[in-house]
Amino acid sequence: MKHGKKYSDGAKLIDRTKLYESAEALDLAVQTAKAKFDETIEVHVRLGVDSRHADQQVRGAVVLPNGTGKDVRVAVFAKGDLAKAAEAAGADVVGEADLVQKIQGGWMDFDVAIASPDMMGFVGRLGKVLGPRGLMPSPKAGTVTTDVAKAVTEAKAGKIEYRLDKSNIIHCPIGKASFGKEKLLENFNALLDAIIKAKPAAAKGQYIRSCAVAATMGPGIRINPNKVGTAAAE
User: Fold this and answer.
1) 185 phi, psi to nearest 5 deg
2) Strands 40-47, 208-215: parallel, antiparallel or unpaired by DSSP?
3) CB 28 within 8 A of CB 13
4) Local structure of residue 173 (DSSP, 8 states)
5) How far, CA to CA in Å, does 58 sit from each of 35, 130, 134?
6) How many CB atoms lie within 10 A of CB 18?
7) Which of the four pLDDT bands, split at 50, 70 and 90, describes residue 7?
8) Which helix (H) or strand (E) holds 161?
9) Residue 143: CA atoms inside 13 Å, Cβ hemisphere, count?
10) 77 near 116, Cβ under 8 Å?
11) Angle 185-196-43 from CA coordinates, rounded to 5°
12) Confidence (pLDDT) at 230
């Protein structure tokens, strides 16, 4: 595969045979973010579980201490007092059956969808639209809740959802290159702590198999999987 000059220059900073400490890896990720825009720093974690089994699913959400650096657009399915609470908390759009119809018509101008439990009968119709995009409200992710105001506030503050893909890998953004190493490390540790805490009882052997970070346009940097999260840093 052919890469551009900026990617190649960044790759020269990285020892492909080395497993880095988290802080050093994130410092390198920032250094390799040479694009003209503020690149997102992404984490990729491969777990020792089998996502085909229900008792080995890993999914949840965590509020990153320093946010994601992204202006998050929130859509809320609610009515009555809950709709008013969502609007007061800063939701970008609030509705019920009318919002379902709008999305069925092709409107997708939002990053997070939140629903009150009584709205899931309506929202369920959007499964084929929202599901593949990872936008379907879920109790596990805290996006189906009676406290819609709190959910909106957390989403705006930088709450991200993590979940296994079919390859047993979790992919998550943890902020922008402009955050710098320290803020990115705080976000990284918060995410890894959440993933470690969510370890299924049915998981056997090594849980964190591999871990890597990369800027949007930069090369991957491998992290020692035995030294991730807050506990490893102490």
Assistant:
1) -65, -40
2) antiparallel
3) yes
4) E
5) 33, 20, 14
6) 13
7) low
8) strand 159-163
9) 28
10) yes
11) 45
12) 85
Using the predicted structure, report yes or no on whether residue 4 has a pLDDT greater than 90: no
Look at the alpha carbons of 193, 174, 64, 108 in this order and tell me if their dihedral is positive or negative: negative
Q: Please give the full DSSP string across 35-94, using - where no structure is assigned.
A: SSS-PEEEEEEEESS-TTSGGG--EEEEE-TT--SS---EEEE--HHHHHHHHHHT-SEE
Give the relative orientation of helices 80-89 and 148-157 as an angle to the nearest 10 degrees. Answer: 20
180 with 56: CB under 8 angstroms?
no
Residue 215 pLDDT > 90 = yes
**Token reading at 223:** 């992290």
- 96's tokens: 């019920």
Phi, psi of 118 (to 5 degrees): -70, -10
Q: Which among 203, 176, 195, 228 has a CA at the least distance from the CA of 70?
A: 176
- The end-to-end CA distance of the chain, in Å, is 40
pLDDT at 16: 85
pTM metric for this prediction? 0.82
